[in-house]
Write a structure and sequence with these properties.
With 136 residues, the protein is an alpha+beta fold. It is built from four helices and six strands. Helix content is 33%, strand content 42%. The chain has a six-stranded mixed sheet. A hairpin with a 5-residue loop joins strand 1 and strand 2.
Length: 136
Amino acid sequence: MTQASAHATIAAYYAAFNAGDAAGMLACVTDDVEHRVNEGGIRRGRALFAEFCAHMGVSYREELRDIEIFTNTAGTRAAAEFVVHGTYLKTDPGLPTAQGQTYILPAGSFFDLQNGKISRITTFYNLNDWIKQVSA
């Protein structure tokens, strides 16, 4: 994989995210993708990642803006920094009650890539900042 193709894969993944296109996101990942969410567990495999995407689609409406993508020269690792502009639609267990609150949250992700697809996604954001925003 080249640096340019790694960049294109990550850009396609985020374009699908912003379009609310879970199938497009799934097309960018390997069958055995490892998904590590901020302060959460590890999901392994496309099926569990698809479940996560479906859950996110009903609980949150998010758009990522100011996306900056960084790749290594081998095209095997990448990172992205962005700002999440979201609306909290449906209460997630253990989190504040959803009432259509909006939030703006800086975040970032790290990726491993294999054979033109994403094999690992690790996402970070400040959960306490998000809780404060949706609790105000």
